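Late entry, written up from scratch paper. The run itself happened at the end of the previous shift, but nothing got recorded in the book at the time, so transcribing now.
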Amino acid sequence: MSRPSSLVDWDLAGRTARRLVKAGPDTSREEAAAVVEELHRAAATAVAHVEALTGLHPVPGGPVPTVAVVDRPGWVEANTAGMSALLDPLAEALAESSGKRPGPVATAIGSRATGVQAGGVLAFLCTRVLGQYEVFGSGGRLLLVAPNIVETERRLGVDPTDFRLWVCLHEVTHQLQFTAVPWLRGYLEEQVTSFAHATDLTPGVLRERLTDVLRSLGDAVRGGSGDDDAPQGLMALIRDPEQRAALDRVTAVMSLVEGHAEYVMDGVGPDVVPSVRTLRKRFAQRRKGRGPLDRVVRRLLGLEQKMQQYADGRVFVAGVVEQVGMAGFNEVWAGPANLPLKEELTEPARWVERVLGTRPAIPA
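Output as recorded:
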């Protein structure tokens, strides 16, 4: 259930998304059961390969991660819970820092409006996500969205067994990051809190901007052009240096974990996934082929430049591993001080010198 002070009525968002979601690919009951079974098997197989390549292992005695193969409504349910766990405390922190709380009627009306808009966006997104590791919300659970995986492998014309294992390698890497590095989740939560305490926005202003952004995203999803008069997104409100610093830290760590997962899913090699090179080539074309809608969504959210840093994450991981090996790279997980700075993502040698105290040789 959504909190009384919630920016978004997440219950309504979930109901709206489930009502609007498109059906998945045609499969028989037997085919669907076989897909679920193989995805569970692929996720279990991926664990040993990821641990062997990364040298990371879950902390003894820590929480045991679970794997859930879900359909599109199942993904919606999980993500409404996760986003509520992330954004509702932000709204509380904003209200406390500003000393201004909207009345219950204004809160109810505003949260329902954003709930409807968020539901429309979730209905679109739930057809595109292949898998994810739940950092917030219930936490500790790896989700694999079966209909999207089947639909994508058919569209790409790739070997289903290889593709399913390849996807699991990426998601299991995220699972290992947070089970082997227990401070990582708390660090992200601290940055969100720092972001909230540094702002002078009120929950009402933030909700108004969120409503504008979600409405524009909904228009884009329904085929709108996303013209130049569209809102610049939530990032346009960030002017405080402390907020930007917190956002930069979050961006850097998310670039790191995404780049690490990208490096691992390709790094296992053809002895594990025989068609890995074909998968990467065709999957890269799929990403490029998302077309103008992706660019509209990024611009509306104000994340056009930030998205580039996610691609930089793989450059960072590959560059550090090339210079100092995987053991040297793993020093990045020793503590928050060892995380890359934003400017180090594209210059891994700077991170090596700062953290490891060595200046790597400049390649020819």
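Confidence is low (pLDDT under 50) at residues 1-5, 103-108, 225-232.
(Scratch paper discarded after transcription.)
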